[in-house]
Amino acid sequence: GDSVTQTEGLVTLTKGLPVMLNCTYQTTYSPFLFWYVQHLNEAPKLLLKSSTDNKRTEHQGFYATLHKSSSSFHLQKSSVQLSDSALYFCALNSGTYQRFGTGTKLQVVP
Amino acid sequence: GGIITQTPKFLIGQEGQKLTLKCQQNFNHDTMYWYRQDSGKGLRLIYYSITENDLQKGDLSEGYDASREKKSSFSLTVTSAQKNEMAVFLCASSGTGRAETLYFGSGTRLTVL
Fold first, then answer.
1. Which of A36, A95, A102 sits opposite B41 (nearest CB)?
2. Beta strand pairing status for A32-38 and A45-50?
């Protein structure tokens, strides 16, 4: 069946450094990928989404490129800020509903 | 814009108790969802509904019932609360289609004593 894998449970970085959060997926159908961000005690909200192969999608300084050849949709930012500390979820919709990964907690320190 | 309202925000129950969580949305979305959030396990789908009176099981439906009597509301019942269970239940809604964004409520935090 369909699945989403996020390999890092916790990523701790110093402010100003670049970050990449990994997301890979498995499906036999055409994928639509999403990244959601959840700040402490808040609801998850959409960060960005894509179904277009090899096209970079950007929002609020974050970007991701869907690579169907490697089944990946990694989230990146060139310079993290303290306010980026949050839980990040990758999700896949291949036809019925969105299936989520286990999430990566990003902790940015001064 | 719109909002998703979940009640209650905190729910404390006893083992074996039947507990009901409620969700209202004013986006006028057709599809509504219940996800369970556990630390380290991400969000897992319990039930979803594509229209009024429709129910579809997710990956985690065992031990739960759901009800969609109106387009704007979707309730979830824990049929028999498990001792020491702790989780956050998130309600979401979306338009129809694979590209549609999920809009989430702030969650109901369940603790079972």
1. A102
2. antiparallel
Beta carbons of A42 and B106 less than 8 Å apart? yes
3-state secondary structure of A48: strand
Between CA A102 and CA B87 the distance in angstroms is 14
A98 touches chain B (CB under 8 A): yes
* DSSP code at position A82: G
Structural domain including B76 reads 4-112
- State the total domains in chain B: 1
Q: Which residues of A4-21 are buried (b: 16+ CB within 10 A; e: fewer)?
A: bebeeeebebeeeeebeb
3-state helix, strand, coil in chain A (%, to 5): 5, 55, 45
Ordered domains of chain A (ranges, CATH): 3-109 (2.60.40.10)
pLDDT digits (tens, 9 = 90+) for A47-105: 999 999 999 999 999 999 999 999 999 999 999 999 999 999 999 998 889 999 999 99
B46-80 pLDDT, tens per residue?
999 999 999 999 999 999 999 999 999 999 999 99
CATH code of residue B42: 2.60.40.10
- List pLDDT tens digits, range B42-52: 899 999 999 99
Interchain CB distance below 8 Å, B106 and A45 = no
Query: Is B32:B23 a contact under the CB 8 Å cutoff?
Result: yes
**Interface membership of B44 toward A (CB under 8 Å):** yes
